[in-house]
Design goal:
Elements lengths: L1 E9 L4 H11 L6 E10 L6 H4 L7 E5 L6 H9 L6 E5 L9 H12 L4
Parallel strand pairs: 1-2, 1-4, 2-3
């Protein structure tokens, strides 16, 4: 079974970040394993980090003391991932219930044998 991590770069995303994480955690993941959700916060000054459930076992929040920009934050998140794949999401993304089911079915069907 394929494994993956998700990196989300946050800067003042408000409730959108919570909705994104909630949609990930309510999606069907029967043909894959989500190792980690990594939120890299670029020094937000809103309440977005207070709105998310920090008690989730698969959630890691990396807090920057300044805004390092999107690219550097993506690299920072990627260096903390585990698994076969990394999915980069913007915090205003919502995952449908069958997104990962369809994605990993597609990967399995189209995987090359090495």
């Amino acid at each position: 079974m394929k494994t993956f991590s998700i990196v989300i770069v946050n800067w003042n995303s408000g409730a959108q970040l919570k909705e994104c994480i909630d949609s990930i955690n309510t999606s069907v993941q029967i043909n894959c394993i989500l190792n980690k959700i990594i939120v890299v916060d670029n020094n937000s000054d809103d309440e977005s980090l207070n709105l998310i459930n920090n008690d989730l076992d698969n959630l890691t929040v990396l807090r920057n003391n300044k805004n390092f920009g999107f690219g550097k934050a993506c690299n920072q998140g990627a260096s903390n991932t585990q698994g076969d794949f990394i999915l980069f999401l913007n915090p205003d993304t919502l995952i449908f219930k069958d997104t990962f089911l369809n994605l990993f079915n597609y990967i399995k069907i189209n995987e090359r044998a090495d």
